[in-house]
From TrEMBL:
SUPFAM superfamilies: Thioredoxin-like
InterPro entries per record: GLR_AS, Thioredoxin-like_sf
Signal peptide limits: 1-26
Keywords for this protein: Membrane, Signal, Transmembrane, Transmembrane helix
Transmembrane feature ranges: 190-209, 216-240, 246-266, 301-330, 350-370, 382-400
Name of this protein: Glutaredoxin domain-containing protein
Top-level taxon: Bacteria
Amino acid sequence: MARGAAALTVWVVMVFALLAPSPGGAQTPEVRAYVFWQQGCPYCELAREALRALSAEMDGVQVGEIELGASLEANLLFREVAGRLEIASPAVPLFVVGPRYQIGFARDGSTRETYRQMIAACRDALCPDVVAGARHAAAGTPQTHPPAPAPSAPQAPALERRVSLPLLGEVDLGDLSLPALTVALAAVDGFNPCAMWVLALLIGFLLGVREPWRMWTLGAIFLLTTAAMYFAVMAAWLNIVMWLGALSWLRLVIGALALVAGGYYLREYWTNPEGVCRVTPSARRQTIRAAFQRLVEEPNIVIAGLGIAVLAVGVNLIELACSAGIPAIYTQTLAMHDPAPAASLGYLALYIAVFLLDDTAIFVVAMVTLRAVSGSGTLSRLSHLVGGIVLLGLGALMILRPDLLS
């Protein structure tokens, strides 16, 4: 009896020993994490270094690095992930693990610890791979995992917002805003001398018209057509930039254009005190002058209005060269902020309103007082100084610190 009890005890112990998991054979759950980064972003390099160190320290952690601008697929994936995680203002570096994300990187080590906690949370409770699902969706293949829950990410630590700009010194970018930048660039663009001389030419002919309603009608047609043409050009360029995404070469090209434009504007400030247009040759000016005169004297108001509209489009397209690329530079900056579509149109509308504000004021004063307004040369020269400083700063940011424009 005792021998049977002993045998039973040995058998039970052996069964439990076989069924019990071996400490050395325990498998650590694998965690897949991702970091979106971009060339020229210093904080992206810090985030990548921290994640590589964590991947070496923590077992079962795989970190995928996705470079924006390297391919259109990477840019589309970035937008898809941002949409799934409901990120209002996506920026780089963007760290994603499961349904959690972190934007930015602080130098004090707090972000590295946040990364560790987020990875540990996905190790304790299995997380859906949101990036993998977004990659399938972007590629047009069916999704094989359940939808990702709403993100529960902590707020990203604030990035350093102070930067040294040419001629301005230390600037706190937290004090700047996209609306303020919109107003500044639009005002500089509006006071360019090439656009001003065309308006002054039209006003000179309109002041000779006897019927006030005809003066107001033809002037309004010119201004409204200019606004519509400029809005269409800027909206088209913004769509191109948004479609191309965060391609690094495009950002560098626009940044270089901003530096060249800023240098040109400062050169004009010092060498062109009269603020006259140097782009349009004399022969072309005579052609434009003759066309305006014929249209203003045209007795049929419909033909005159249509002619003024067509001439406004043609003249303003030609005079875009005098803007030194300001519309392209602004739309690139707007795209880097990545506002909602409705907000983008709102910013473009604000730009056009400010751009035409000076022209409208000069036109209204001239029509009311029946005399041409002088002093536009002084304003054009001042706009060269302000525009040169702003464009140099934007160009430096696009090339050296693009993360501060996101």
